[in-house]
Amino acid sequence: MKPTQPLLKRLRRLALTTKSVNGGYYKGTGSGSMGRHTKHGDYVIEWHKVRTYVVPEQLKSFKLTPFVTKNMEPLKGDFRGDPKGGLSGERYLDQWKRENGVD
C-alpha cells in the first residue's frame, strides 16, 4: 500500500530527522567547531575559527535595532557590586530581613 499524493507532499515538508533517512546522516546543532582535539586529549582553540561580532561605532544613531532591548533591567542573579558574589553571607541576611522582617 502506498500513500496518496497529498499525503506524500505533507511528508516531504516535515523536518529531516535521523530516523527518516538511511544511516550516515548527522544533523548536528549548527554550533560548528572552534578548534581541534589533540592526540593527548586536549582541545586547542583555533582563533581563526572563533566567531567575532563587530559592534557599529555609532551605536546610538544606528538604524537597525538589536535583538535585545537596551532598556533591560538587571537580572536577579547579577552580583556585580558584591566582591563575594552570590555566596555573600551579608547579602543573604539582608534579603532574609527584607522578606521575613527583623527579629
Short description:
The chain is mostly helical and 103 residues long. Helix content is 20%, strand content 6%. Strands 1-2 form a two-stranded antiparallel ribbon.
Task: Please characterize this protein's 3D structure.
The protein is 20% helix and 6% strand. The chain is mainly alpha-helical and 103 residues long. It has a two-stranded antiparallel ribbon with strand order 1-2. A hairpin with a 5-residue loop joins strand 1 (35-37) and strand 2 (43-45). The radius of gyration is 26 Å and the shape is extended.
Task: Note the main attributes of this structure.
two-stranded antiparallel ribbon, 103 residues, mainly alpha, single chain, 2 helices
Describe the secondary-structure layout:
Elements (H helix, E strand, L loop, with lengths): L4 H9 L21 E3 L5 E3 L43 H12 L3
Antiparallel strand pairs: 1-2
Euclidean distance between termini CA atoms = 77 Å
- Uncertain segments are none
Q: What percent strand?
A: 5-15%
- Helix % is 10-25%
Number of strands: 2
Kindly report the average pLDDT value.
78
Main sheet summary: 2 strands, antiparallel
**What's the gyration radius in Å?**
26 Å
Strand line-up in the sheet with most strands: 1-2
Q: What is the chain-wise order of helices and strands? A: HEEH
> Helix count, per DSSP?
2
**Protein structure class:** mainly alpha
| Global outline | extended
